[in-house]
Amino acid sequence: MSDYDYDLFVIGAGSGGVRAARMAATYGAKVAIAEEYRVGGTCVIRGCVPKKLMVYASKFAHDFEDAAGFGWKVGESVFDWATLIYRKDAEIDRLNGLYIKNLERHNVEIIPSRAEIEAPHRIWLSGEERHVTAKYILIATGGRPNLPVDLPGAEHLITSNEVFHLEKQPDRVVIVGGGYIALEFACIFNGLGTETTVLYRGEEILRGFDDDIRSTLHEEMEKRGIRILTKDNLASLEKNEDGLTVKTIEGRTIRADQVLAAIGRSPYTRGLGLNKVGVELGQRGEIKVDDYNKTNIDHIFAVGDVTDRVNLTPVAIREGAALAETLFNNNPSITEYDNIATAVFTQPEIGTIGMTEAEATSAFDNLDIYLAKFRPMKNTLAGNDEKTLMKIIVDADSGKVVGCHILGPDSGEMSQLLGIAMKMGATKADFDRTVAVHPTAAEELVTMKEPSRTIRKNA
Ligand code: FAD
Predict the structure, then answer these.
(1) For position 50, which CATH number holds?
(2) Is the separation of the CB atoms in 289 and 295 below 8 Å?
(3) CB 3.0–4.6 Å: which of 18, 132, 272, 347 could bond 187 by disulfide?
């Protein structure tokens, strides 16, 4: 009989923790998972899934407008926030139930409690006031939204945690931040009819993405009526009878009903007891792990956002799966971090994979850049001026495609398939010999013949 209550104890039932727990149990391990909020974690409960449902809701306004160009007479349309929130919550409840069932079906014990490590193999369950022991401990506690706590009026800010549960749709919203979560919510609110302002301290929105994508998204969001204020930031927030008064460091005054802070997320390790067992943290507060998700303590592991590697659901899931393979299936596994395709569900949407032009410029001597900016077919009859942008970055010496960035409808879907080609090491010649699918926007990816510009460092 084992010396411990469990072979594996998982703290946090989000994307990474659930996958690791379920797979470990499949391989015969005795597994428990503790969750202090709701099984499913950020992605299912207050991240990717509810967000995408709200993105769908917000697109209808544009579709109704476009429909007129195709001969439709759409009657007066009215949006009801309460219905959307109610139906979205029902779907989240359904998914939460499925996650619970799935864990139970695999004999994973779910413990609805906060868990803290108190000794190398011992965990304190504060919700149940008892201890348990485990041979291996997995920390999968994710991240938490950052808040500028010292800002005057910070208590009036909401984060992505609260935005999904607002009782009333704000007439005016200010969104602080220029990352993907900030911009996705800006487009959601704008589509639903809220007057939307983005306040971002940097030079240009969406830092870390390709510059052509960033500037074109900026233009397109403004065309849709979103006010984007860059190089400015919150100075204070004051509540009054008519909502909130936002003062900015550049001296602007903006009136709003809600102010959403989307200024990044930090690994969630507070109060976890890591200092009691000596788990090492990095500079950003992330748990440091090796390729096999092992911390500096031999039997303690961490996966997902709490390790702050690539903070995306599919990555956390991969890491969780790799851990279960390593510990319980005698199959040491690591996660590959190159060429991860991602989508940003702004309007227009972004699909992207590989290096930005700036990154490729520092990595290679010679580049060919293929760029196409065009009005997609649907927009012609719709009378809609929104542009699609496609950009392929090629290492001119090897011919290999090293980056591919798309801004336009369904580009997230396209990027998933580009991910396969790029993982296989596709060259521009491979793209060229692929016959186009017509009429689609994606065909542009295989029909761009001449580079729009070339970069030759030693020319
Ligand atoms: P999480 O899913 O955050 O799960 C951690 C869990 O641990 C939580 O349920 C938490 O309650 C629990 N917990 C924490 N501490 C304790 C404790 N001490 N005891 C017990 N339980 C604890 N990613 C994408 O790939 N695509 C997207 O479109 C996307 N959109 C997003 C939109 C938003 C608004 C946000 C916030 C995130 C989004 N993400 C998206 C990121 C994605 O949600 C995360 O990368 C993913 O959820 C990380 O999984 P995880 O397992 O590391 O942690």
Answers:
(1) 3.50.50.60
(2) yes
(3) 347
What confidence tens digit (pLDDT) does each residue in 350-390 have?
A: 999 999 999 999 999 999 999 999 999 999 999 989 999 99
Rounded CA separation 405/292 (Å): 30
Query: CB–CB of 278/118 below 8 Å?
Result: no
Query: pLDDT at position 202, please?
Result: 97
Whose tokens are 């413990």? That residue is 111
Angle at CA of residue 416, ends 179 and 159, nearest 5°:
25
Asked if residue 458 is part of any domain, the answer here is: no
Dmax (CA) of the chain: 73
Q: Which residue has the tokens 């590989």?
A: 354
Q: Residue 61: phi, psi to the nearest 5?
A: -55, -45
**pLDDT value at residue 82:** 97
* Cα 143 to ligand 1 centre (Å): 6
The pTM score is 0.97
Sorted by sequence, the CB contacts under 8 Å of residue 254 that are 6+ apart come out as 174, 197, 199, 245, 246, 248
The reply to whether 131 and 210 lie within a common domain is no
> Known catalytic residue: 438?
yes
| C-alpha to C-alpha distance for 455 and 144, rounded to whole angstroms | 41
Residue 321 and residue 408 in one domain: no
> In this structure, are 133 and 270 located in the same domain?
yes
Helices (H), 69-155: 81-105
**Residue 117 and residue 123 in contact, taking contact as beta carbons nearer than 8 Å:** yes
Domain identity same for 32 and 67: yes
Question: Using a 6 Å CB cutoff, which residues line ligand 1?
Answer: 11-17, 34-37, 41-43, 47-48, 51, 114-116, 140-142, 160, 181, 268, 272, 304-306, 311-314, 316
- Tokens in use for 441? 């926007």
Block means of pLDDT (10 residues each) for the chain, 459 residues, are 91 98 98 98 98 98 93 93 98 98 98 97 97 98 96 97 97 98 98 98 98 98 98 97 96 98 98 97 97 98 98 98 98 97 98 98 98 94 93 98 98 98 98 97 96 92
* Same domain assignment for residues 93 and 184: no
What total of structural domains would you count in the chain?
A: 3
Selection from 404, 382, 408 nearest residue 395 by Cα: 404
Residues 140 and 273 in one domain: yes
- Under 8 Å between Cβ of 117 and 274: yes
What confidence score (pLDDT) does residue 458 get? 84
Pocket test for ligand 1, best of 42, 139, 350 (most atoms within 8 A of CB): 42
